[in-house]
Amino acid sequence: MPATTPRGTRRGSPQLRLRIGFVVIAMVLSVFGARLVQLQGIDPNSYAEMAAAEGLVEVDLPATRGQIMDRNGEPLADSIDGMMVVADPRLTDDDAADLAAFLYRKLGVDYVSTLAKLRAHQTEQGVEARFEYIARRVPATIATEVVEEADSKGYQGLDTRRDPLRDYPAGDVAANLVGFMGTDEPLAGLERTFDKELSGVDGSTRYEVGSGNRLPLGESTITEPVDGKDLRTTLDTKLQWYAQRVIRETVENARAESGFAIVMDSRTGELLAVADDPTYDPNEPTASAKADLGSRALQDVYEPGSVQKVLTASSLLDLGLVTPRTKIVVPSDLPRDGRVIHDWFTHGTIRLTLTGAIAQSSNIGTVLAADRFKDGQLFRYLRQFGLGKPTRIGVRGETKGLLPRLSEWTSQLEDRIDFGQSLSVNGVQMAAAVNTIANGGVRVSPSLIKGSATSDDGRPVGTDHATHTRVVSEQAAKQTALMMERVVDPDVGVAPGAAVPGYRVAGKTGTAQRVGEECGCYDGTFTVSFAGFAPADDPRFTIYVVVQNPRNGGGGGSVAGPAFAKIMSYALRRYGVPPTGTQPSRLPVEW
């Protein structure tokens, strides 16, 4: 008998079972697909935050800041090993108050803000915080000791990360130019001007943590930092150090307010030293007065006084209006347009050559010689010498000085400008003007940066961009230098203390009244200075020394002249410049 299917039992169709299976699978896949769309497309941020709450940490990887170096590669600013101290608030919450007090004692961090970071809290995104910066730019040894001591006391949740620390190994050497860093940003000097090139680009890393530790097999991504570029200056650290010590001694001995000394390569315009006093230590900038943190050689504005006579005389020579032997009858005083011009020394009527007017620094003799100018001629020469325009060497806050507009010139104003009053300069600007005479009548723009760099205002600066402008003829420059030699002659000049034994020196003193900030008038204080170059017949260095308000009664020859001689002597020896062996100028000073 054939088998029969038991009653009550029914086999479904295979096609039906397949259809039902496909429907179930489709439903499951639809649920997963919808979830994936939600995670990746609709609200990815909220789920990333949820993942972070489960233990994802993102940490900055600081780039190493570029060095600032002198011309020989000696570091003036460097980045050394440093660390940041960080905390995981989930682990520090239980001991937050005690730990905050501990960190205040050890690192000097603010107690209240540190306490808030150490307590468990949510970030601005609404997730539980797992990472907080406690202190930045901490020396590596100190950071390590603090974390180890905290661990030994039973405090959990502190750790360290690499965080390069800015250091100034040369101390106060060139500090007024180099500047300094704050915790997270540059605050002054080259550090600030060239921050974009020096800073580089920070990287970051993202990883999972569990129980306060990084999970070896957890999520981990990293973007490597790009280190900053080095910045090489034209400065010579050893010469800079020596110039700073000389100007400090000069300021102290003269009981003066301040001073600076500039050393320039006569041929290239490169600044080998820009020494300011008072100065400061960029490792501890807050220990010094704010007024001492910038460079007075570029940021102060003052009247140059009789150093200006070099520019007046060379312009006259270039126009062929005078010679070094031009005869001038110099009265005891000179009435001009309702005012009387005097010389710094008392005399009757004397007979000086133009050389004598320079050697004796006669205001009256200079004004009488300058009467030969036609309207506008001196103004145009002074502009070519670079007056009234910033040098743009890459120092923030540089003043452009003040050269009155030609439309403002009166005969009385021009008389005062002839001998260096009623116009203002900055130190580097005036040094470059005098260096034009040393460089055979060609003004080479001063440089502080070797090669090329871009300042924060987008300007390219450096030796690669130096300009050369013919201002006066080579003959006029040579004649001016011969006249300037007589200034340091012990028999006829006013600055024998500026002489350098064995070398021919050309120079010029300056003494000018200062304009007081409160009254806007001459207040009885003075700027004294000396500018010159050597060897006079084959110049290698131009040096300009300025001292503000000496209280010992000295002038440019007695205060600034000896400082010039010391710095020039050192520079000549350091660079192995031999004497030329030729005879010094013997141009007549009287007739």
TrEMBL record:
Q: Which domain of life is it from?
A: Bacteria
| Places the protein is found | Membrane
Q: Does the keyword Glycoprotein apply?
A: no
Annotated Gene Ontology cellular component terms:
plasma membrane
Q: Which residues form the Penicillin-binding protein transpeptidase domain?
A: 259-568
Per its UniProt record, what Pfam families does this chain match?
PBP_dimer (PF03717), Transpeptidase (PF00905)
What sequence ranges are listed for the domain Penicillin-binding protein dimerisation?
61-183
Q: Which SUPFAM superfamilies match?
A: beta-lactamase/transpeptidase-like, Penicillin binding protein dimerisation domain
According to the UniProt entry, its GO molecular function terms are: penicillin binding
Keywords for this protein:
Cell cycle, Cell division, Membrane, Transmembrane, Transmembrane helix
Q: Name one GO biological process term.
A: cell division
Annotated coiled-coil positions are: none
The residues that cross the membrane are 20-37
PANTHER family the record matches = PEPTIDOGLYCAN D,D-TRANSPEPTIDASE, PEPTIDOGLYCAN D,D-TRANSPEPTIDASE FTSI
* Protein family: Belongs to the transpeptidase family.
UniProt-recorded name of the protein: Cell division protein FtsI (Penicillin-binding protein 3)
Which species is listed as the source?
Answer: Nocardioides soli
